């Protein structure tokens, strides 16, 4: 009888234990993935902020006052995340937001050809000479009109900022989140003894047997889990991990004690065991006299216990009697109800967390769309910026075979714009740029498919697809009259010079643009306020 009851208890324990572990692992993996994505989007936000600064014409002209202003502005926009902001010129001289200067020698700072094909760079932690502590450098290149590297703008993110963000992750009792970089170096951990001192290894150590296998899985899987033993406290632990977008090779880990996962199950089963032991002692005293009456109820009890173990929806049939079998039946019924209730609670928690993750993903997608719009538009005129125009021009060239006529490029430059700035100030100059952008946009909304971009400074570029030379000339003449008659107060009259070039077969965009650009300078040399074909 003791062996029979013990077998039932052991079967119940193993079934519910594995069910609880599966639910907890599913929840922990989703938490790791969700917060890894959130952390990745935080770095995406930093990159977008830096790119907006890198497009500033004053930065590209290496204006020291403007550079100092933008570095301090980055610290403000970072809302406490950044410990410093830096600018590196072509001579590799570094200037930070505090006015410190230094020659760059650390390989973490990319230069010249190392930026080829890269829109940003995020370093592993480096020791900052100015802050005297390890920081992560997030940087973007500054490119000139020919897409050549002229400098770097970046921010320094202290490891404490990462640790603070990880501390906001809601975890179960006995769990904690930590972070390792692409070299396997631990850069954030609740135990500061690990930070920048412990590097992950694929070899299983005597202290953490099994953890090396988890490290191997992080090298081939985007997310997953594993088990290892912490021999320091003789505690089995479960680790889930997820990779972080924008941080190649970085992994977010969540470690949980197995004992905490099964705590409530152990508590319920311990109560069942105590109750069962007491009842079995009473039962043994009466077994000889009541053996015949016990066989049938025991078979019935065994049947329903096994059914309840295999099917959580099974309705346990309680034996209604005042003897020991009836009490044991009620005890099993109570135990199964508690276990099934706990399982239902965990399933509900997983369902809620899944819904939360879905809601956050919707918000993140909306924020990403807004960031993409910000990154593709000129912040002053709200026309396409040069980077977005390059993408659009590639699409137009690919679709050129569908049109009967080749596309035409117009490079337009405001006449005497420097005098306007000198006489009326840069604020008026910015207003003139915005008013001209508005006039160009209105012209392009008149049923055509023209694409207008602010190329830089007072220079604008217009792409006119599938149009004849006469059509383009008529458009340019009408545009001259429209601008000449528009109100650009306090400027009495605004004029422009433009170069126009139709794309030749097998011509690259660079060659095509240079023809239009040279024609624009020819128009200026010819007296301004006109357009010339290149």
UniProtKB/TrEMBL annotation:
Q: How does it sit in the membrane?
A: Multi-pass membrane protein
Name a single GO biological process.
negative regulation of bacterial-type flagellum-dependent cell motility
Membrane-crossing ranges are 268-287
In this chain the GGDEF domain maps to 405-534
What EC number(s) are associated with this protein in UniProt? 2.7.7.65
Example GO molecular function term? diguanylate cyclase activity
Residues in domain HAMP? 292-344
Q: Which UniProt keywords apply?
A: Cell membrane, Membrane, Transmembrane, Transmembrane helix
> What's the cofactor?
Mg(2+)
Instruction: Report one GO cellular component.
Output: plasma membrane
Q: Where in the cell is it found?
A: Cell membrane
Output the superkingdom of the source species. Bacteria
Protein name in the entry: diguanylate cyclase
Organism encoding this protein: Marinomonas profundimaris
